[in-house]
Amino acid sequence: MTLVEINKIDAGVVAAKSVTIAIVGDVHDQWSGADTQALESLGVDLALFVGDFGNESVSIVQQIAAVSVPKAVILGNHDAWYTASKVNRKKCPYDQTKEDRVQQQLDALGDCHVGFGKLEVPDCKLTVVGARPYSWGGTRWRHGQFYQERCGVSSFAESTAKICDSIDAAKQNTLILLGHNGPAGLGDQMHHICGRDWKRSGGDYGDPDFADAIAHAHHSNRQVPLVVFGHMHHELKHDKTRLRDRVVVDHHDTVYVNGAQVPRVLKTASTWQCSFTLVTLAAGKVQTVRLVWVNATATLVSEEYLY
Prior knowledge:
6-stranded mixed β-sheet, DevT-like
């Protein structure tokens, strides 16, 4: 049985009319024609890419821009790795006086890049609103010159206001919020969904501006069934006995999903499989969240229900 057939059965169980969304976690240069074929074979209504395609890897982004599935994309910190960071700029492998690879990625993606913007998806009766792109995470405002020049924001408050403008301008009442890093306020332990795991003391490494924008959406009586992000990988650096929490539900029944399954592609000399996180929405609510592994022929290798 193919994954498309399984999706149809699952959708028929939860609701007569539902929406299936594929979340593509941090790519980190693991994308090829086989990934495109696998995604396009899933039969999903929408794909959400959380960024970190590579260190300003224009070729990977161009491949993803060509995917035929309706999609919303946000660029991550690695997608501005050499441009935003003064330290990394010294290691830049290309001539930045002749190339602007951040802009090249934006040009390739066009309207499907939703960082500080939105994508209307009327067929699914929802709007995807993008949080602050290029986020490194945490409560310290970083790379101020980059954000001022590229995005016109100089603080968390200005960033929040810009995200809220997109929320207020959304044509659909049902919103999905898409970030590279997740929002603050979801826990401060290493294993929490946005917890800092590279220090044993842990800490909440979510984005405060993203959290404030989500609160604004709730206060505006918008329906927010799903918040999607990545950045914080599922394997923990200092605790190998468990994995990161990948799904959290708040008191608004908003489901937060961290899709950063890294690596998202596993291959040997004889096999290849890639992962997607599949979310089913029905009646404006999340019904299921599944981590699936699919081979190049769109055959389900394994699945795990996360919610």
